[in-house]
Design brief:
By secondary structure, this protein is α+β, with helices and mostly antiparallel strands. Helices cover 24% and strands 27% of the residues. It has helices spanning 2-14, 67-80, 99-109, 160-166, 172-179, 253-257, 266-270, 274-283; strands at 48-52, 58-61, 113-115, 121-124, 135-143, 146-155, 184-188, 193-194, 197-206, 211-220, 225-227, 237-245, 264-265, 290-292. A hairpin with a 4-residue loop joins β9 and β10. The radius of gyration is 21 Å and the shape is globular.
Length: 298
């Protein structure tokens, strides 16, 4: 754990602007004949014009990163979500950012994308942190060159403590603290498990902001089942999925998850309302834990 805590300050010395991502908003695209279109660099390296957009518009392309530099870049973005609030993801805002800008920027860094056959969805790879066995997949849904929503899947169950350390910004503890009371909370305990453990899914909805985070974890098999969906008090959360869209998007966040997110409401599972659960957490972060009757689940 300590070595990863030590990596972040080093990264911040290497990266420009405290690791901030470019702002890929559609309205920020420069189209006048006398201005320059520049992809802002993340690494502090020299830049060389490599292509011409028009007779007077020059695009400055970033150098491709090697594997070590990719990890440094990813870690820097994870510190504070690239300096923007969800549903923005590393400077990319659903409903505003242009896919042409985003795909070119990440391709220049060495992150390649591919379009799913007969769909308007693009998968982008290369975000794995092999040093801590954490694997990430990012998918973009694009319409008329505008990114409509973003899905991020992170698997870190092989080294859950290291995964939680690096993805701390997205932990239930930090999300509840930084974004306030969720609009909804869902819990699922599926029928499968192993030995004295059961799997669970815990989902925080922020419908009014346009994002949902699903956490997958493991709890002790008992009756009632005690669950602590916290990066601080329980190191058995080993993965998460984020679903991001514009707050003005009429699609449901459950539909965006493609069936991954389901279950019972926090009221059905625990007898507590969302506001009661949130108030207890704010009074004492240890109250993120709760119990649910085993008879409610298959």
């Amino acid at each position: 754990m300590k070595k990863f805590a030590q990596v972040i300050p080093l990264i911040m010395l290497i990266l420009v602007g405290c690791g901030r991502s470019p702002d890929f908003h559609a309205q920020n695209v420069v189209t006048t004949a006398t201005s320059e279109l520049t992809y802002m660099p993340t690494l502090n390296v020299s830049q060389t014009p490599t292509s011409t957009v028009s007779p007077t518009n020059t695009a400055i392309v970033l150098p491709t990163l090697d594997e070590r530099e990719k990890e440094e870049y990813i870690l820097s973005q994870l510190v504070d979500n690239g300096g923007c609030d969800l549903p923005c993801w590393w400077g990319i805002t659903p409903g505003k950012s242009l896919w042409s800008d985003v795909s070119v920027y990440f391709a220049d860094l060495g992150f390649k994308s591919s379009q799913r056959q007969d769909t308007s969805k693009f998968d982008m790879g290369g975000f794995a942190l092999f040093s801590i066995k954490t694997y990430t997949r990012v998918a973009y849904h694009v319409e008329s060159n505008v990114i409509q929503n973003i899905s991020i899947s992170v698997g870190g169950s092989l080294e859950p403590e290291n995964f939680q350390n690096v993805y701390k910004y997205y932990s239930p503890d930090e999300i509840l603290t930084n974004y306030g009371q969720p609009s909804r909370i869902l819990l699922e305990i599926p029928s499968y498990g192993y030995g004295d453990r059961v799997a669970y899914g815990f989902s925080l909805f922020y419908d009014h902001l346009g994002f949902l985070i699903f956490y997958s974890g493991v709890a002790q098999r008992s009756d009632p089942v005690r669950i602590c969906p916290s990066f601080v008090y329980d190191h058995l959360i080993g993965g998460m999925n984020l679903y991001l869209q514009s707050p003005g998007n009429s699609s449901s966040l459950e539909a965006l998850s493609g069936g991954v997110v389901r279950g019972k409401t926090i009221e059905e599972a625990t007898g507590k309302s969302v506001s009661e659960y949130y108030y207890e957490f704010r009074s004492n972060p240890a109250n993120l834990c709760f119990t649910t009757s085993a008879s409610l689940w298959p």
